[in-house]
Design brief:
110 residues; mainly alpha; Helix Hairpins; two-stranded antiparallel sheet; 2 strands; 64% helix; binds magnesium ion
Length: 110
C-alpha cells in the first residue's frame, strides 16, 4: 500500500479506532467527535495566535485530519470521494476580494 495514499491513512485510523475500542465504547458517536474536532481546531488557533512553531502547527493539523478521517469511519461515508466532489465544485466557483481577502463562494448578488 502506498504510504502516501488516502487508503493507507484510512487503514491507520481504522486500526487506531480498533485498538482503543472506539466503536464498542460509543466513542464514534458524532457529537463526541465534533467536540474532539472543535478542541483540535482550538489548538490550531492557539498555535497561530500564540506564535508557536510550524512543527507544532503541523502536529495540530494532523490531529484534526486524523479526527476527520475517523469521523468518516464513524459516520460511514467516503471522505476521499467527498473531497474530490467538493474540490471539483470549488474549482468552478468564482472569487472576489472581501475586505482585502480572497473569498471563493457562490456569490448570489441581488
Ligand atoms: Mg492536538
Amino acid at each position: 500500500m502506498n504510504p502516501d495514499s488516502y487508503e493507507a491513512m484510512l487503514t491507520a485510523v481504522q486500526e487506531f479506532h480498533d485498538k482503543h475500542g472506539f466503536n464498542a465504547s460509543g466513542s464514534e458517536e458524532l457529537t463526541y467527535r465534533v467536540t474532539l474536532m472543535t478542541e483540535e481546531l482550538g489548538e490550531i488557533a492557539a498555535c497561530v495566535s500564540k506564535g508557536k512553531t510550524k512543527a507544532a502547527l503541523a502536529e495540530e493539523c494532523a490531529d484534526l485530519l486524523i479526527l476527520l478521517i475517523g469521523t468518516a469511519i464513524s459516520a460511514r461515508f467516503d471522505l476521499q470521494q467527498a473531497f474530490w466532489q467538493k474540490i471539483a465544485r470549488l474549482q468552478k466557483r468564482g472569487s472576489r476580494l472581501v475586505e482585502g481577502r480572497v473569498r471563493v463562494s457562490e456569490f448570489r448578488d441581488p
